[in-house]
């Protein structure tokens, strides 16, 4: 009877004690919760399109603490960590009574601490709430915090906190920061030797730092490897081999790519901790290395900027704002991809594109390169010499100034600027000036990013492309009218693909153009293949002159090196669209064999108003027209030269819907076979061609 009463009293007392403890713990948990939110503060990261780290920013405390979960870490490291630090991590509730008992017995038996009893939960408690000294009170508080943490978080969350907060010396916190700083790689795949070192360092992070105490770090790693062999986490032979691996003796810099874009992303959304960009880290690494090396060869104060974009999507895949962000002598903090500068001759291809589109010229049309006066404006070539009669192809490839101005005078500067606006690009004119002939030789301001956007449209068969900002803006095709018609864009690209590469550069199958601004202040080169367009700017950010700086000699080699070092595969240029072909000079219509304009801006001829002549399609042409995505027949471009506007077109005697003042039009055939096309100008003069449509 007495035994039963004692048993009941004991059970009741234990229940009361458990209730009191539970109530006390619950009250303490509500009154003094663990500061978990502060512990979750991590470094801001900027990632590439594949999730690779481009750049990280230190926390407000100046620490490198990268967000980390167990999924980001080699599973072997996690097994070694738990086996070494907390074997019963998955079973206990924050405190390991077996480890506590063992530590107490060893303390009594040896008179000193032989082994600790801290669980990973207790270590997390210490990391989120550091306390000075190792007093009994501090230990009890740590135990209580560990119990609180276990009530609030899952085991996986606790493990993730340890992986993110564990100290590794200096301002390094977490296994990701340590792996990047000591091994130069993410911790997803670690060797046994690397895992052992990362397990050993957090116990005494300052004393065991390998960059300061190599011997102590090696000894600590050896103890971990020995323990792992005893626990059979790794094989004995594997542990021995790992012990022979060298330990890094210096700390590496964490990734710091795309500095300007990374800062822009942080400014745009300062509360976001992970910014995803459209860049590709291998491309970015290659371009930055090329820009840095090139600037070193070009001399002091010279900087280099580069933008590479995907022609198909408009996404920026690589962007270098300066040769070295941290080089004050080159004003490296200035993002030169966004600064308006004179583009030199890089806008000439679009002048030629309009001339092709209007049917004024073909690639083999002869044009004069001789001194000319355009109402007081007297352009000169870069080398102050003249080539005489040249073909349109030669004039563009040699970047001759007088022929470009002749064509711009014919197509109109305002019309050229209007085409740029179709690509959402608005070059900046000098104050109080309207578009004039000087814009063809660099008399406007434009950014490198906008110039690359124009060339992306040229590479994309004349369809204008909107480049993204590299962060969030969604790029893509711009709806509306084309920058250039497909045939005109192909003619320009075909000519530029024949430009000789700079000295020392191999042929890469790209179409490219160079430019040099007045006074040797800016050197440019922009090129494209079937997939990518790359733009290069070279100069001084303070707009100072650099003697000898030219687009061909300074920027073009960087362009070719950039394509090579970016790692992108060489992709052939897009095939010729329907109706695009090279025509020999002898086979051109008489009106297209030579181009010239007189002082009145009219096409030179024996009469002031030459009769209209259809220059495309030529007489007797056999034309194969494709189909649109909707299955409809694609329109055929019609081009004429001469005559007086407006013009009326007829197909097989049937007038097209509207008259037009332009010398280009479109016709959709009713079917295949022979057709007769006729154009009549405002004074009744007519021209006809007979063609066969497949």
Automatic annotation (TrEMBL):
GO molecular function, one term: penicillin binding
UniProt domain Glycosyl transferase family: residue ranges: 52-228
Biological processes per GO annotation: peptidoglycan biosynthetic process; proteolysis
Domain Penicillin-binding protein transpeptidase positions: 305-523
Transmembrane segments: none
Reactions the enzyme catalyzes: [GlcNAc-(1->4)-Mur2Ac(oyl-L-Ala-gamma-D-Glu-L-Lys-D-Ala-D-Ala)](n)-di-trans,octa-cis-undecaprenyl diphosphate + beta-D-GlcNAc-(1->4)-Mur2Ac(oyl-L-Ala-gamma-D-Glu-L-Lys-D-Ala-D-Ala)-di-trans,octa-cis-undecaprenyl diphosphate = [GlcNAc-(1->4)-Mur2Ac(oyl-L-Ala-gamma-D-Glu-L-Lys-D-Ala-D-Ala)](n+1)-di-trans,octa-cis-undecaprenyl diphosphate + di-trans,octa-cis-undecaprenyl diphosphate + H(+)
All copies of domain Penicillin-binding C-terminal, residue ranges: 605-691
Entry annotated with the keyword Zinc-finger: no
Record's protein name: peptidoglycan glycosyltransferase
Keywords (A to Z) from UniProt: Carboxypeptidase, Glycosyltransferase, Hydrolase, Multifunctional enzyme, Protease, Transferase
Family: In the C-terminal section; belongs to the transpeptidase family. In the N-terminal section; belongs to the glycosyltransferase 51 family.
EC number per UniProt: 2.4.99.28
Organism: Phyllobacterium trifolii
